[in-house]
C-alpha cells in the first residue's frame, strides 16, 4: 500500500535525511553539513599546459506554475530542473562539475512524489557525472527548484555569445518546432498523448525533454566556433540575444527542412497553425546554436559526426541588425517572437 504521508508530516530534518540517503545510495557520496559548501578544485592541466582557471556558474529556477505542464510526472520535473541548468554550460563548451540545489517544497506534497522528484534530480546528475554538493530547503506554496551548477574551464576553450562575424554560418544540433507543437497540444488544447498519438515526439519533447547533445564540448575543444547560445527561450529570442552581444549583425535563416522538424510541418497543416510561430516561438527546446566560419563547415561536420553528434546549417550572419527568413525565394523579416518573463502576452 502506498504511503499517504506528506512532507508536512515529516518536517525539514527528516526530508533532508531522505535527500542524503538517496544521494548516498546512488552515488556513495555524503552531503556536506556546514554553513557553506566546499568543492575541491582538482589539479587539472589543459593540452596547452595552462591551468583550468575559470570557475563558471549558472542558475535557472524551475517554478511549477510556469515551467511544469500538468502532464509531467515528478521524476520528469526533477530531471528537467537539472537539464535546463546544465544546458547553458554545455553550449559554452564547459563540462558541469558540481551542483547546489535550493528546494521550495509544498507541505502537502506526498512523500512518494518527493522521492520521484529527487530520483529524477539525482539520476540526471549521475548521467553527467555531476556532484550534488548540497543546498537549502524551505516550505513554499508551490514547487520551486533553484539549482546552481558550476564547471571549470580554461578561458581559451569557452564559447561566448560575442564573437560572430558577418558571413559566419549558423548551425544547430537539432531541428525546431516540436516543443511549439507539444505546448499547443498540452496547454492550448488540453490534450494528451493518447488523443494525439501522431505527435508523440512533440509531446515528449515537452514532458520528457531529449537529452542534451555534447556538440559544444567537441566544438570548443577544437576551437571551431565564433559564438554560441542555447535556445531555451525560443529560437527568435535566442537570435536576438546573440545580436545584442554582436552589434550591427543579424541573421538570414533558411526556412527549410534543416530548420524545421517534419512533425511540426505536419501539425501546422493539419490544424492550420502558423508554422513560423511553432518554429520561432516554441521555447524550451534546449537546442544549441553555434556560429562558425563558412570555410570550415565540412571539417566541423566531419568532427561532429565522428564523435556521434549532429549539426544542421540553418542560416548565416549578415551585416544588418535584423532577422530574415528566406522563404519561397523571398526575404521576410521577423519582428516579434520569443518568451520573456513579466511580459504581457496580449
Oligomer state equals single chain
Report strand %.
15-25%
**Total domain count:** 2
- End-to-end separation in angstroms reads 47 Å
The arrangement of helices and strands along the chain is HHEEHHEHEEEEHHHEHEHHEHEEE
CATH superfamily of the largest domain: PurM-like C-terminal domain
Global mean pLDDT: 88
- Find the structural class using helix and strand composition: alpha+beta
The CATH topology of the largest domain corresponds to Phosphoribosyl-aminoimidazole Synthetase, Chain A, domain 2
Number of strands: 13
CA-atom Rg in angstroms: 21 Å
- Helical segment tally? 12
- Shape descriptor reads globular
Which parts are unreliable, with pLDDT below 50 for 5 consecutive residues or more?
338-346
Q: Tell me, what is the CATH class of the largest domain? A: Alpha Beta
> Tell me about the biggest sheet?
7 strands, mixed
Amino acid at each position: 500500500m502506498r504511503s499517504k504521508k506528506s512532507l508536512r508530516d515529516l518536517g525539514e530534518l527528516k526530508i533532508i535525511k531522505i535527500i542524503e540517503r538517496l544521494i548516498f545510495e546512488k552515488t556513495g557520496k555524503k552531503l556536506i553539513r556546514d554553513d557553506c559548501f566546499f568543492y575541491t578544485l582538482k589539479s587539472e592541466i589543459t593540452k596547452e599546459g595552462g591551468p583550468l582557471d575559470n570557475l563558471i556558474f549558472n542558475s535557472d529556477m524551475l517554478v511549477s506554475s510556469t515551467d511544469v505542464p500538468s502532464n509531467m510526472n515528478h521524476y520528469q520535473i526533477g530531471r528537467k530542473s537539472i537539464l535546463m541548468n546544465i544546458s547553458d554550460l554545455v553550449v559554452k563548451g564547459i563540462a558541469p562539475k558540481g551542483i547546489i540545489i535550493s528546494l521550495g517544497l509544498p507541505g502537502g506534497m506526498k512523500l512518494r512524489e518527493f522521492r520521484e522528484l529527487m530520483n529524477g534530480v539525482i539520476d540526471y546528475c549521475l548521467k553527467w557525472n555531476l556532484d550534488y554538493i548540497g543546498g537549502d530547503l524551505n516550505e513554499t506554496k508551490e514547487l520551486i527548484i533553484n539549482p546552481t551548477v558550476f564547471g571549470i574551464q580554461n578561458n581559451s576553450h569557452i564559447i561566448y555569445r560575442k564573437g560572430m562575424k558577418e558571413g559566419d554560418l549558423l548551425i544547430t544540433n537539432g531541428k525546431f518546432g516540436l516543443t511549439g507543437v507539444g505546448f499547443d497540444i498540452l496547454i492550448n488544447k488540453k490534450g494528451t498523448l493518447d488523443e494525439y498519438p501522431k505527435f508523440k515526439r512533440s509531446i515528449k519533447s515537452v514532458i520528457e525533454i531529449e537529452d542534451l547533445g555534447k556538440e559544444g564540448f567537441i566544438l570548443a575543444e577544437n576551437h571551431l566556433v565564433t559564438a554560441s547560445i542555447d535556445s531555451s527561450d525560443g529560437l527568435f529570442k535566442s537570435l536576438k540575444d546573440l545580436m545584442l552581444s554582436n552589434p550591427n549583425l543579424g541573421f538570414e535563416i533558411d526556412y527549410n527542412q534543416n530548420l524545421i522538424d517534419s512533425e511540426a510541418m505536419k501539425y501546422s497543416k493539419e490544424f492550420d497553425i502558423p508554422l513560423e510561430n511553432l518554429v520561432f516561438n516554441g521555447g524550451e527546446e534546449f537546442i544549441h546554436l553555434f556560429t562558425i566560419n563558412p570555410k570550415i563547415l565540412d571539417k566541423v561536420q566531419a568532427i561532429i559526426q565522428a564523435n556521434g553528434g549532429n549539426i544542421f546549417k540553418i542560416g548565416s550572419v549578415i551585416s544588418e541588425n535584423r532577422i530574415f527568413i528566406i522563404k519561397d525565394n523571398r526575404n521576410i523579416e521577423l519582428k516579434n517572437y520569443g518568451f520573456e518573463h513579466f511580459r504581457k502576452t496580449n
